[in-house]
User: Which sequence fits this backbone?
């Protein structure tokens, strides 16, 4: 009998790319097009919601990884989204994949857009969650919002993601607690926390992305699923609608009474939509 690995106990592996070690985990059937997860600001391997990873890995080969300088991956974290994207491409190719699906959340969604523009043949389909285009509304304010909510969380003994990712409603607060608890389900071989330098470099990259000249998204012809909460404070939800308008082959889902972490709050619905999208 085959025992299916869950994200809670998926082993952490490493790949050496040009002398730099990248940490990653993979699970699910090793058939079909792999789904590469691209992570958010300050996130390491253990910041992916296990319900989302396990849900998609029930049908697809899922790979999560720490980009350069993040968590257990070596090197210096880039200060530009474009360099992060090129590192991600090098990682994907080092694992031997010619074509992948990308699931980019927040900062990871910025990275996914650059990969689709620069390496269109490498990408089959895109899922962009809690994210926005270069020069998008309010993206240059992420640093201020993140630092203020982190201070608030420190004073109230909470995880900053409870404020950053969720609404302040009864439903939002309950979902936030459940999400933070799920992130602690893995107890063995947890990833290293992000360093202060890496965090600052990521903030710099996000700020630059928010001030950048808008890209011509009409050149991205891949099928795209865009998902977000309808009350995203970090990357305002209007950016999701903007992406849906500007990408030629996009569909949009906004979850009610949900913030930046809408795909985690509505993980059951999101997983169903993601699988239907990837399989269609």
Assistant:
């Amino acid at each position: 009998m085959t025992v299916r690995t869950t994200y809670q106990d998926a082993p952490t592996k490493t790949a050496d790319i040009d002398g730099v070690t990248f940490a990653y985990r993979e699970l699910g059937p090793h058939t079909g097009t792999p789904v590469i997860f691209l992570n958010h600001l300050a996130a390491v391997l253990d910041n992916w919601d296990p319900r989302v990873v396990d849900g998609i890995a029930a049908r697809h080969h899922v790979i999560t990884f720490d980009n350069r300088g993040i968590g257990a991956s070596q090197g210096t974290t880039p200060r530009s989204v474009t360099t992060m994207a090129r590192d991600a491409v090098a990682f994907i190719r080092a694992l031997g994949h010619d074509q992948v699906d990308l699931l980019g959340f927040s900062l990871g969604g910025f990275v996914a857009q650059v990969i689709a523009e620069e390496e269109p043949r490498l990408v089959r389909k895109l899922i962009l969650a809690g994210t926005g285009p270069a020069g998008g509304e309010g993206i240059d304010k992420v640093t201020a919002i993140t630092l203020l909510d982190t201070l608030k969380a420190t004073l109230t003994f909470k995880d900053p993601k409870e404020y950053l990712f969720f609404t302040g409603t009864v439903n939002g607060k309950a979902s936030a607690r459940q999400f933070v608890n799920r992130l602690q389900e893995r107890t063995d071989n947890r990833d290293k926390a992000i360093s202060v330098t890496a965090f600052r470099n990521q903030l710099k990259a996000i700020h630059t992305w928010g001030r950048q000249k808008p890209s011509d998204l009409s050149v991205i012809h891949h099928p795209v699923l865009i998902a977000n909460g309808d009350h995203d404070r970090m990357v305002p939800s209007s950016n999701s609608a903007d992406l849906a308008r500007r990408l030629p082959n996009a569909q949009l889902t906004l979850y009610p009474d949900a913030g930046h972490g809408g795909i985690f709050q509505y993980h059951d619905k999101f997983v169903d939509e993601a699988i239907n999208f990837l399989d269609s």
Remarks:
- The first strand starts at residue 13 and ends at 17.
- The chain has one domain: 13-279.
- The beta strands are 13-17, 20-27, 35-38, 62-65, 100-105, 123-129, 224-229, 250-255.
